[in-house]
Amino acid sequence: MPSAKKTLGLLPVRGGSQGLPGKNSRLLAGKPLLGWAAESLANAPGIDYAFCSTDSPELAAMARTFGLESDPLRPAKLATSDSLVIETVRHVISEQAALGREFDRLALVQATSPFVTPLDIQKALDELNNADVDSVVSVARVPDDYHPSLMYRLEKGVLIHAGDSNDTFRRRQDRSAWFRRVGLILSTRVSTIQRFNALVAGRVRFVEIEPSRAINIDYESDFQLAEKVARNDKL
């Protein structure tokens, strides 16, 4: 009988932030920002080891209060403003393997997308249970006002359709569905990362997120919007 797949739950956070300094520890509706995603990851079914990768001892200690492991700290060279998430992921997988923890799958959440739920994570992992799926991403439906068929790019002074021009004059309800990727949850196979050196590659499926939860916090205006959502205020 084949052994069960092992899943690493990962929350990567840096101590520094250019757009909104100190955002990962800033209180969102009374809870540190990183705590929102950390709690969901710690409580998600199917996660065998929930880990916070950070260069900050303060953020590491905070993550532990929400149920995540956080030792060892991330090397400073992987926590600069230019560092790529794929580099951190590969480092954590290698580091954990050296500690005797081998994983087949990864579920990655982000502190800057706080409204992920344990159910979102479970859905992404359920999709990955299909043998023909390599990666799963969270998406939100693109509002009709921003439908690609209504978008143009400027090329040598001429407007060029960004999407299918046949969709332009169709009724709104008859236009093709478009989605944008959002950062709440990403799940992928470790073999996919190794094969493509990418987090999203191969055969990709999705988990659809309601637009009200599809918030990525980079700037003060994003944080204020998240506060309204967290407090169930009317948007």
Q: What's the average pLDDT?
A: 92
The structural class is: alpha/beta
Instruction: Write the CATH homologous superfamily of the largest domain.
Output: Spore Coat Polysaccharide Biosynthesis Protein SpsA, Chain A
Global shape: globular
Quaternary structure classification: single chain
Number of strands: 10
The CA-CA distance between the termini, in Å, is 52 Å
Q: Helical segment tally? A: 6
| Major sheet characteristics | 6 strands, mixed
Question: What order do the helices and strands follow?
Answer: EEEHEHHEHEEEEHEH
Low-confidence stretches: none
CATH topology call of the largest domain: Spore Coat Polysaccharide Biosynthesis Protein SpsA, Chain A
Order of strands, widest sheet = 4-1-5-9-6-10
**CATH-defined architecture of the largest domain:** Alpha-Beta Complex
The top-level CATH class of the largest domain is: Alpha Beta
Provide the gyration radius in Å. 19 Å
Total domain units: 2
